[in-house]
Sequence to fold (354 residues):
Amino acid sequence: MSYTLNNKIKDLKPYDPIQGDYKIRLDANESFLAIPKEILEQFHNAVVQTAFNRYPDPYAYNTISAFARYYGVKNSLVTAGNGSDELISVLMSAFLMKGDRVITFSHDFSMYRFYTTIIEAECIEIPKNQDLTIDVDNVIKTANKIGAKMIIFSNPCNPTSLGLCKESVRRLISSVDALVILDEAYMDFWDQSLLNEVEQYDNLIILRTCSKAFGMAAVRLGFAVANQTLTSIVRAVKAPYNVNTVTQAFGATVLAQKEMLDKGVAQLVESRKALFGGLKQLELEYPKSLFLFNSCTNFVFIRTLYAKEIYEYMLENSVAIRYMGEYLRVTAGTVEENTEAVRLFAQFLSQRGA
Ligand SMILES: *Cc1c(COP(=O)(O)O)cnc(C)c1O
Fold:
């Protein structure tokens, strides 16, 4: 007897983030802020009080309520997930049938394409404009022509750091029959969220996460927000106990700290401005070598002829950033981390005589 792997999975490789002991990690868009001591104490109490022998609340009621209060949306429109990553997978398996067409953009978050492969949907990748903006009219036209069942994209975008304004997103949603999955993982850093309008659409699901702006990537907590009909389906198709009790408690605790969260977001934005400013100086000095995209996020996206060399140079100096073909993505860090990253960029460019 011999077992044969099926075609859709046989060539897959496990997700491989940068591993190793780097002094400075600016490669995964995480927050550099630590959870304050008072909150850690509340985490501690939550752990001690957890009934570990019992299953979690399948609806994560307290967590969802804290989320809803923070953003001013209704509880009944929110579903919690084991990170928004899990929700992407759940939404695709629920709302798509084998062979259905899904529109993604290039470049955008790589997991979208990955999950379409697993469920055997057809992924149609629409290239972005030269300047990495989205041609909304073209997307609408294509979606309607090919009968797309889903359009999924991040706004603001990871990796480009660019944002699409509300008005354009609204136009896109209301001009297509496809279900639009709007991944607002970085929207805490920008002000063009559609969260408060979600009920006006019958084809919109918004994703949010605690992993980026709220500094809880380790906890694994994300949310899907949609109208009542769609929310009922999402709740029905997810695994009943997808969010563990500890994550629910930590999430509810942190999301109740509006002041702390707002202050944290402001600090991350300040940090990104500083990093952007430092790199912008270098762009002015070496206009042929670096091009910065405007950022609506907590990272800076750069086009450079020396992407691979700079990436390796940074690693040699114990700074991890993200390398993607002709681009580099650098997450905003502490003042010291940003300064070191900019210093290494400068050193590389001057040595290279770029
Ligand atoms: C980081 C990221 C996510 C994943 O968030 P988790 O909640 O940690 O799974 C989703 N979408 C985009 C665009 C991201 O950059």
The longest helix spans residues 258-285. The pocket of pyridoxal-5'-phosphate is lined by residues 29, 83-85, 109, 154, 158, 183, 185, 209, 211-212, 217, 222 (CB under 6 Å).
